[in-house]
Amino acid sequence: MKKFMEPESVALIGLSRKTGPGSYNIMENMIRFGYKGKIFPVNPNARSILGKKSFSNIKEIQENIDLAVISAPREDTINILNDCAKADIKYVIIVNQGFADADKKGKEIQNTIKEIGTRHGIRILGPNTLGILNNYNNFTTSFMPLTNEKSSVGLICQSGILFVGAEDFSGAIGKGIDLGNGCDIGFFEALKYFQEDPDIKIIAIHMEGLYQGKEFLSLANDVAKKKRIILLKTALTETSIKSAMSHTGNMAGNFQIHEGVMKQAGIVFLEEDGQMKYAVKTLCNMPALKGNNIAVITFSGAAGIMVADALEKYGLKLSTLSHNTINKIAKLSPDWMPLGNPLDIWPAVMKYGAEKVYSIALEAVLSDSQVNGVVCISIAPLLPDFSFLDVSESLNAVMKKQFNKPVAAWLYGPNKDEISKRFESGKKIMTYPTLETAAWSLSILKSNY
Amino acid sequence: MKKFMEPESVALIGLSRKTGPGSYNIMENMIRFGYKGKIFPVNPNARSILGKKSFSNIKEIQENIDLAVISAPREDTINILNDCAKADIKYVIIVNQGFADADKKGKEIQNTIKEIGTRHGIRILGPNTLGILNNYNNFTTSFMPLTNEKSSVGLICQSGILFVGAEDFSGAIGKGIDLGNGCDIGFFEALKYFQEDPDIKIIAIHMEGLYQGKEFLSLANDVAKKKRIILLKTALTETSIKSAMSHTGNMAGNFQIHEGVMKQAGIVFLEEDGQMKYAVKTLCNMPALKGNNIAVITFSGAAGIMVADALEKYGLKLSTLSHNTINKIAKLSPDWMPLGNPLDIWPAVMKYGAEKVYSIALEAVLSDSQVNGVVCISIAPLLPDFSFLDVSESLNAVMKKQFNKPVAAWLYGPNKDEISKRFESGKKIMTYPTLETAAWSLSILKSNY
């Protein structure tokens, strides 16, 4: 995989002469992305593309080529691949659609391609793929514009939407491998690569069809001992399995039987398309949850009740709080105030101020040996008029004391984006858009290692 | 309820002399909110508050008072309420906590209050409430700052968080009633008021404990024939039911048995705290879904598969598309492209451009008699460089043709906020943060009327 991820020279075969808006020109995108290696455009109908000399055939290039990226109609692919073999190219990405994802003829071409690869020792990524995204060396083979922002997330997917729509899936991608139809390189090789990559701490996977099933499952259970794996398995129904067949040409079924074992190994299964970014943020920033007992600190009794419902749904429960913990807030509350967990601090806040009371409460529950994790419910008020209700700075100060317990926050009110940023600036407390997500996120921090 | 919602004169009993940040001063908030009626502050220790003459007792005020808002320690409430009776005040809001939500003594005081109310014909909202929010006449009794933005949503809740955190629940509130502990005014009266209020089209309810059960359920089934009702029922587990007892002092249980009947009547049950705003937006802007058959138009095969999974989860299915519909896209696609539902238009888009192909596809599926509703999957690209991928204007033009079928969109990519606004500017296509939410939102548009 290294030559796919960090090539020093790339040939772009079948590169379009068109550049600019709507041209989907790979080289243009690659240069914009900041790739510093050598690029050789190959197009028999062009003399130069974007100021670079264009070759009519790959055999003309008299230099070493680490990787060839083919974006040509499927009819031409077999000849091109044979040319690659003659030019001694060992790594090839096939971008175009129209293979096993399409019709009978496409399947035949894909099979032929695979045979050529096997015969000549050429490793193939695709077809039907955006290929590689490596933000550690500003490299991509995508013809769509991508966000260039580093992270410790390694992404393995079967569709370019996980690259183009990174904001909606994993968030910032450190390194990404789009398997597409996966005629050769598959989940096993990609996972193996990230297993050994020190830059990558979290591995997010989008999977429609599981091929290389046995090898992958065994490896995944092994990797999960060292790195957290997040899995978005799609194509779960009869209809969508059929759609998956014509998306990447892979069978989607027979997965559920492994789910139990994989969950046991600590692999996080996603149930909805919006969860991946919250899983990533949680696993990247928070310590493990070492038990099921959660303390909830809240300005609002109603929100405490909602999160209690959600915690139970995800196998967590409201912790008992020690007398010592309760007393710290009781001293600040009216005599009549019933205190427990959820710990409703609002009457104390009205008297002593939000920053003071919330800090005391957070430190108290984090120091409570019965508590494994915390949900903080707080307000995101308009600034500067109501800055006295913004407890982000005070809570981040408490978190500096290193309790090594996860704290998830949910904010309500008109200034959520800004106050969330303030909460997360300490890189300890993560915020979530709903109480449901906050509860779920804590639940995935339970792990066996 | 009218005197609660549209009082011409309000006495604020026990109003704090403190004003400014952290004072939670109701009158200050009321004036900032733009209330134009008469306000009479009552505080024996002040001569004036915010420039208004302060009365030492409500009996001193020699003018008609539509509504009294009491924010005083619980010990003083009984005397104040007796004073209200003598001053012939018929509508009272009790703001403070510390009643049935607290301890035995609080319960006793609340019972006494209720008796006084019954004896003198005084209707009471609360205790433990922010009271009223009426954006149609800029009136609120909230001591917390609220967003003043009109909508056709009538909100009934048991907690001020639904007011303060409106952005996280119903979105803009037209009129809101916080029942708090609900010692007198309850779900029945509040619902009855919104039933007859022509400003209100959608009724959103946050309910912990259902009191007035029978009357409410019968009324709700009736109201649901004319207006859509959205219900967030919380306190669903043993633990949270206990918490609810000490939040508003009401029993939460015995609800599930009515769920079937209420769903049958078209009432939307929410499963998670983040869903309310999407339910509101959906029901406010989209026509009913007249069958289960959904067409999906997509740039991405993978996203089509995800939404197919989600649709099935919510009782919907992928529609069969007519040959005529398919042919309109087949003409623009490569021969090998397998076309169906989800309708993957990407190869056509690469050749003929997003705006042209997407408009043709949307018009085709909306014209297809087998299709009841549509999910559009599209890109939210950076502008202006990739504006050729922004199809918002083209799709809104198609929607002007009045197909009377709901269209939900999901956008992926780096510019979601901006492009979502453009999609929604036509007030026809609504956008959702996840495919899951888009599918769910269509499902709640099924109705029996």
The geometry of chain A reads as elongated
How many E strands of chain A? 20
Largest sheet of chain A: 7 strands, mixed
Please write the CATH class name of the largest domain in chain A.
Alpha Beta
User: Under the CATH scheme, which architecture of the largest domain in chain A would be assigned?
Assistant: 3-Layer(aba) Sandwich
CATH topology of the largest domain in chain A: Rossmann fold
**Helix content range of chain A:** 25-40%
Which oligomeric state applies?
A: homodimer
Radius of gyration of chain A: 26 Å
**Distance between the amino and carboxyl termini of chain A:** 28 Å
Q: Uncertain spans of chain A, ≥5 residues at pLDDT below 50?
A: none
Structural class of chain A: alpha/beta
Q: Could you characterize the architecture of this molecule?
A:
The structure is a homodimer of 449-residue chains. Chain A is α/β, with parallel strands linked by helices and 449 residues long. Chain A has 17 helices and 20 strands. Chain A has helices spanning 2-5, 26-33, 74-86, 104-120, 161-164, 187-196, 213-223, 238-248, 256-264, 276-285, 301-313, 323-330, 346-352, 354-367, 392-399, 416-424, 435-443, and strands at residues 9-13, 38-42, 48-49, 52-53, 67-70, 91-94, 123-125, 132-134, 139-140, 153-157, 175-178, 202-207, 228-233, 268-269, 293-298, 317-318, 343-344, 373-379, 407-412, 430-432. In chain A, strands 9-8-11-10-12-13-14 form a seven-stranded mixed sheet, with helices on both faces. In chain A, strands 15, 16, 17, 18, 19 and 20 form a six-stranded parallel sheet that branches. In chain A, helix 6 packs parallel to helix 7, helix 11 packs across helix 17 and helix 15 runs parallel beside helix 16 (416-424). The two termini of chain A are 28 Å apart. The model of chain A has no long low-confidence stretch (mean pLDDT 94). At the A-B interface, helix 5, helix 8, helix 11, strand 16 and helix 13 of A face helix 5, helix 8, helix 11, strand 16 and helix 13 of B.
